Amino acid sequence: MDLGMREWCHAIPKIELHAHLNGSIRDSTLLELAKGLGEKGVIVFEDVKHVIMKNGRSLPECFQLFDLYHILTTDHETVTRITKEVVEDFAAENVVYLELRTTPKKNEAKGMTKRSYMKAVIDGLRSVDTVDVAFINSSRENCLESAVSSSTHGKIERKRIFIRLLLSIDRRETTEAAMETIDLAREMKDFGVVGIDLSGNPVIGQWETFLPALKHAKDLGLPITIHCGEVPNRKEIQAMLDFFPQRMGHVCCLEDEEWRRLKSLKIPVEICLTSNVRTERVPSVEFHHFVDLYKAQHPLVLCTDDPGLFSTSLSNEYYLVAVTFGLNKGDMLQLARKAIEHVFADNGVKQYLTEIFEDAQRRLGLQNMHHIP
Ligand SMILES: CNc1ncnc2c1ncn2[C@@H]1O[C@H](COP(=O)(O)O)[C@@H](O)[C@H]1O
Ligand SMILES: [Zn+2]
């Protein structure tokens, strides 16, 4: 097969570990929801339309926009709908494993609790009908028939995507609310919840507020990923490194000493190129810390963060790396495959993903490539 680099980045199997549900909504859906609320007089559609379609966004603008998104997606049916669409969109670009994160939300006016919000998300996963969705832990989902037989021997023609969920703590939340999220995550382990995320506006909230909940999660054996260093806050960055989570997102504003610690601790990094450029955390892809970490063979994984908000896709993030840093097709496939090591799902799922990548290597014509470790 002779594919161009863009087609190659689309065709290879990919693993997405850092995507926020509400940041992944299709523009067309946002516009439709805004129109509906405009007609009801809840918002002024013309004002909102302009904001949704805008391309460049500063970091503070992103969080204003999320507040708007949350007005648009505030009932259970809409949460179910956006979940279904987001899964379909990732599957369409050959994402084979998606760790989707979202902040469980309470909304008394809509009769919504954190638990019912998550039930609406699960309903969304269940309602996907264009691809096979495997989302319950592998002991329950009967998923481990050979990955190869499903894709090459024609037994199952449909695409399959594995979904796991991370529950996010928003930095605006209290310790008590954060604790509630951890307890919900524990309760939902059998429904594909595999870990915890700390996110939200990085200039809001104190590390000490979330620490008890994060410690509680750690005690329960729930893996944790933390948005770290989106703004230069030395004390917090150091405390986050001390906490030693399983993964970190962004890590943009680190000082030399903190880079050294991150590297010596080997904490895997979720790299979000377009997000960091759009929000002006880095001047351009060329100057992104990806290249330093990649050269240092630091564990990392390419992610989108908010593909809807930043008008990107995981394939596009791979393509940006290939063209900016001159990586070849083999390098890109290897980079994609390395992500298996950092998923929060169990070994059964990891084995399945390994088979998917071995099969892709055969199918896409890289038989003669050196063995990918
Ligand atoms: C741009 N970089 C970022 N930095 C920090 N937090 C971010 C983020 N992008 C998204 N979120 C977090 O994810 C929420 C939206 O998805 P959910 O409602 O949870 O599905 C945002 O409200 C914010 O808390
Ligand atoms: Zn994020």
UniProtKB/TrEMBL annotation:
Record has Hydrolase as a keyword: yes
MF (Gene Ontology): adenosine deaminase activity; metal ion binding
Cofactor: Zn(2+)
Catalytic activities: N(6)-methyl-AMP + H2O + H(+) = IMP + methylamine
Domain Adenosine deaminase, chain residue ranges per copy: 13-355
InterPro entries associated with the record: A_deaminase_dom (IPR001365), Ado/ade_deaminase (IPR006330), Metal_Hydrolase (IPR032466)
UniProt keyword list: Hydrolase, Metal-binding, Nucleotide metabolism, Zinc
Pfam families: A_deaminase
Domain of life from the UniProt record: Eukaryota
GO BP: adenosine catabolic process; inosine biosynthetic process; nucleotide metabolic process
Family: Belongs to the metallo-dependent hydrolases superfamily. Adenosine and AMP deaminases family.
Full protein name: Adenosine deaminase-like protein isoform X1
